[in-house]
């Protein structure tokens, strides 16, 4: 597994419940860190990676099967496989964006600003040259993405990779959770085309500051990016609400 997925399957607390494991795997699927058709490690191995009993893991996988996120196949080539459409349907995310309160969007942004700003600072201190190249590659992937699924994956992986370079599992987990909550609402057909290039440029600015080991500039660019995303989400929310009102 890649570094993002390894972080997602870091050992949990000894009291971890099945729903916590389900959340981690569901987030990885939602963000494209686990691909459609990808086979999960055998149950015994995956339970060991999470630091839980096989019974707890099986309970988590059963819940994911009920949600249609994984399927289990029998036989020599069997196992548990990820089910994720390469082009996720946006209807659920549009409904969430229309229903959410602007104050809730602001709360998300407040937390995101704290997490993203500190991640950028620590990444500027701790990222290796190879890590910087990975971050810059993800900037390029977003700039060249053509489908919604590709954009969601490249965007979320960029922020998660920056968090990984902090060497802080707690910061990385919070960034993953925040991405899972918000990235789908951002990348919908209501996002103006011009904003796509702006988002890629904002990522490039963060990555460049990290590469130059400029802590405060990295923080400034990361916080500015969060404020810009808040404006984008708020604008799309208001458009959806006004449109719904006009239809009634």
Automatic annotation (TrEMBL):
* Alphabetically ordered keywords of this record: DNA-binding, Pyruvate, Transcription, Transcription regulation
Is Transcription regulation found in the keyword set? yes
What region holds the HTH gntR-type domain?
15-85
| Protein's name according to its UniProt entry | GntR family transcriptional repressor for pyruvate dehydrogenase complex
Which organism encodes this protein?
Mycolicibacterium frederiksbergense
